[in-house]
Design goal:
Strand order of the largest sheet: 8-11-12-7-13-14-17
Bound molecules: guanosine-5'-triphosphate, magnesium ion
Helix content: 10-25%
Number of helices: 10
Radius of gyration: 22 Å
CATH architecture of the largest domain: 3-Layer(aba) Sandwich
Number of domains: 2
Order of helices and strands: EEEEEEHEHEHEEEEHEHHEHEEHHEEEH
Strand content: 15-25%
Length: about 425
């Protein structure tokens, strides 16, 4: 096993040498951590067992690691594999949690079946919430009722409170982290069998992206500054012009006009402001990282385009060599077409996206593939038997392709390295 030189904490995003990582004491009497209230003590060890696990000051073997700055637990994979962060942003109720759930659920099979990559939880207990979401929507054999994901809260179990300095409590987010590794049939396996990645993402509440929501003691969206790709979940059903156009054509309750319109361009503008401040960019400077506009709820707004469905075969093609490739030219061509549609109805979104990043792509998808209906308790909910995601994995495959060379085979000339020649470490 090789050890990384440096590690980025997925809670506070501090970057530090791997040998600075602290260990979390195991002995029950050592429950006096200085930063995590009631937490086990974090310490720098002096003795290890033969497997490289540290002994705590009371002689118990420990296995969990913690960030030296915020003291929150970090997955052990971070010591061995490079970490890539992705950001998902969007307005409240735009569909971020449903999109995240459908994308991860589909990736678990698509990466293994088509791209010869294993995709596993890096820290199953930290990923608990996403397992519950997947269970509710996709592993639910009871098709007699309606189910819904809860609204993401501004605090709660997706966050942890840490006393960073005496008297100063900071709320930091809990990441979802996954490990991707090359399977023996991967086209790069012989050359670089040990290679892989951890990737981390977050389920923020839409309110976190509103102006004034980010403070020094609640920096929940700071991942925007370190992530390799940004996914802006854009919900056309929250746009007044789209809703007017779709009136009478779509049965979705989100389209019907009692619903409130949201200024989603402001989410992008505010994100750009935070990123420029965190990365020290000039006010007019555009981000070089890919901004993927995930145009979600395709099932609801598809009457705007002359397409009734999105086929995976348009963008994933098996070559004569048997390798499945992501057809990136096709994704870009389709992006140009969807950009025109968004430009027609929601020009301010295209303008805000172009002002934000030099590299914008529009990818439609539907996490549900069907409309929710109003449940007795007033929540919008779906019958699990009706859920059929469509292209939910495509934005994430594109993000992986653009940010991690060599994992996803593609037809992209720019990604020729990704076709098997080289897979540099970060
Ligand atoms: N028609 C349709 N509706 C969807 C789809 N995905 C999500 N929704 C609906 O959109 C609503 C909001 O979805 P969420 O994923 O909870 O939204 P969110 O962006 O996470 O919202 P916050 O947690 O408040 O920030 C829910 O009522 C869903 O039923 C989809 O693919 N199609
Ligand atoms: Mg949510």
């Amino acid at each position: 096993m090789s050890i990384r030189k440096s590690v980025t904490c997925p809670h506070c995003w501090d970057n530090f040498p791997a040998f600075d990582l602290m260990w979390i004491a195991h002995h029950p009497e050592l429950d006096d951590d200085s930063k995590v209230s009631g937490g086990q003590r974090r310490f720098l060890p002096t003795m290890y067992d033969v497997h490289g696990n540290a002994f705590d000051p009371k002689g118990e073997v420990c296995s969990a690691l913690a960030c030296p700055r915020c003291h929150l637990e970090v997955p052990r994979d971070l010591v061995e594999l490079p970490t890539t962060f992705f950001s998902i942003l969007g307005s409240p109720s735009s569909g971020k949690s449903y999109y995240l759930t459908a994308a991860l659920y589909k990736l678990r099979t698509t990466l293994a079946q088509h791209f010869a990559l294993s995709f596993e939880d890096s820290d199953p207990s930290a990923n608990q919430r996403v397992h519950e979401y997947e269970g509710t929507l996709f592993l639910n054999s009871d098709h007699s009722g309606l189910v819904a994901l809860p609204k993401t809260e501004l605090d709660g179990d997706l966050y942890a409170s840490v006393e960073m300095e005496p008297g100063r409590v900071v709320t930091l987010p809990q990441p979802f982290s996954f490990r991707m590794r090359l399977l023996p049939e991967h086209h790069n396996y012989k050359r670089i069998p040990q290679n892989g990645r951890v990737f981390c993402l977050y389920d923020n509440a839409g309110e976190h992206f509103l102006p004034n929501a980010s403070t020094a003691n609640s920096p929940g969206t700071k991942h925007l500054a370190v992530s390799k790709a940004l996914m802006f979940v854009f919900d056309p059903t929250q746009h007044h012009t789209v809703r007017k156009k779709l009136a009478g054509q779509a049965a979705d309750p989100q389209v019907n006009s009692q619903a409130r319109s949201t200024r989603q361009d402001q989410i992008l503008t505010e994100a750009a402001r935070r990123i420029r401040a965190d990365r020290g960019m000039a006010p007019e400077e555009r981000d070089k990282r890919p901004l993927i506009v995930v145009v979600t709820k395709f099932d609801a707004w598809s009457p705007l385009v002359s397409l009734s469905q999105l086929k995976l075969s348009w963008v994933m093609k098996r070559g004569t060599d048997g390798v499945v490739r992501l057809d990136v030219e096709q994704i870009r061509k389709l992006s140009d077409q969807f950009r025109k549609v968004i430009q027609k109805y929601c020009p301010e979104i295209v303008a805000a996206a172009d002002a934000f990043s030099e590299d914008v792509v529009f990818i439609p998808c539907s996490a549900l593939g069907c409309s929710p209906t109003k449940r007795e308790d007033g929540m919008l909910a779906v019958n699990p038997g009706d859920i059929r995601p469509s292209w939910a994995e495509v934005p994430m495959l594109y993000a992986i392709h653009r940010s991690i060379n060599g994992l996803i085979a593609s037809t992209d000339a720019r990604g020729s390295k990704a076709n098997g020649k080289k897979m540099p470490k970060e």
